[in-house]
Amino acid sequence: MKPALLAISIAVSLFAFSMPSRGDLTSLPLAGPIAGDATVAPSGRGIAVSFGATSQWPNVCWKAPAGSAWNWSPYGALVFSLANPTRNDVEFCVRVDDSAAANGIVHCATGKGVIKAGKAQRFYFALSAHLSAQETGMRWAPPSNAPAEGVNLHGAGTIDPSHIVAFQIFRARPTVPASLVVESLSLTTESLTPSIVGLVDRYGQYTRADWLLPYRAA
After folding, report:
1. No. of helices (H) and no. of strands (E), the chain
2. pTM for this model (two decimals)
3. Angstrom distance (rounded) from CA 167 to CA 209
4. Which of 39, 79, 87, 214 is the most buried (most CB within 10 A)?
5. In whole angstroms, what is the distance from residue 172 CA to residue 18 CA?
6. 76 neighbors 93 (Cβ within 8 angstroms)
7. Mapping DSSP to helix (H, G, I), strand (E, B) and coil, where does residue 16 land?
8. Residue 185: what pLDDT?
9. CA nearest to 207, candidates 194, 218, 190
10. Nearest CA-CA partner of 37 in 19, 25, 53
11. Which residues contact residue 41 at a Cβ distance below 8 angstroms, ignoring those fewer than 6 apart?
């Protein structure tokens, strides 16, 4: 094979690279994202994304084939591993859409995170409803269940996991460009959404922590 063709073949293989399924993780392909004010290139660890700073929402977006949707209802969270090859911490956001009508407010769930300079990290984003103050009547919802490893991104918005049309990693109103490496994308059956069932006992006391001298029934 000619050197030029060999180089192209290697690049395509790297671009399509996705970690195999393991445990309760089901891998998603890295290849084929649509970039907005960003550039995407093969990397030995996945795909390298360079986010610009000329738009409000530079992003890389993976979309379901036209006219179709993914059924993610058997899964609890979207999982993605990122690496930050730069000397600066990078803030980022993730958004999952259940309709082409999603606009950042409706038909989507959005979360925010940060990855430290020079670090690699796995992040989890729950697919089931993110509890809001209006829905629970509480100023803050109870803590989400912690993943076995990695960081759980808290989010807002409600989506239908059985009808996912797109998901994206983006930056919000950046003032400077930034770079990240997306090492893997996957889904997990692990549930991370907090439950409010049994949150208080019959005396109105919080049941998921203990403290000095709580009231106990005789």
Report:
1. 2, 13
2. 0.76
3. 35
4. 79
5. 26
6. no
7. coil
8. 98
9. 194
10. 53
11. 47, 48, 50
Distance (Å, rounded) from C-alpha 46 to C-alpha 59? 16
Task: Please give the C-alpha separations between residue 148 and each of 45, 60, 72, 153, 203, in angstroms, as whole numbers.
Answer: 23, 27, 20, 14, 32
- The fold of the 3-188 domain, in CATH, is Jelly Rolls (2.60.120)
Q: What share of the chain is helix, strand, coil (3-state, %, to 5)?
A: 10, 35, 55
Which regions of the chain does DSSP assign to beta strands (E)? Answer: 25-28, 34-36, 38-43, 46-51, 59-63, 77-83, 90-97, 108-115, 120-126, 151-153, 155-156, 166-170, 178-188
Burial 114-140 (b: 16+ CB within 10 A, else e): ebeeeeebbbbbbbbebbeeeeeeeee
| Block residue for tokens 């998603």 | 28
Cβ count near 7 (within 10 Å)? 11
69 class by beta-carbon count within 10 Å (0-12 exposed, 13-18 middle, 19+ buried): middle
Confirm if 111 and 93 have CB atoms less than 8 A apart. Answer: yes
Per-residue pLDDT of the chain (218 residues; tens, 9 = 90+): 444 443 333 333 333 333 334 447 899 999 999 999 999 999 999 999 999 999 999 999 999 999 999 999 999 999 999 999 999 999 999 999 999 999 999 999 999 999 999 999 999 998 875 555 566 666 655 656 666 677 888 778 889 999 999 999 999 999 999 999 999 999 999 877 666 677 788 877 777 677 666 666 55
CA distance 40 to 54: 16
Tokens, residue 75: 């899964």
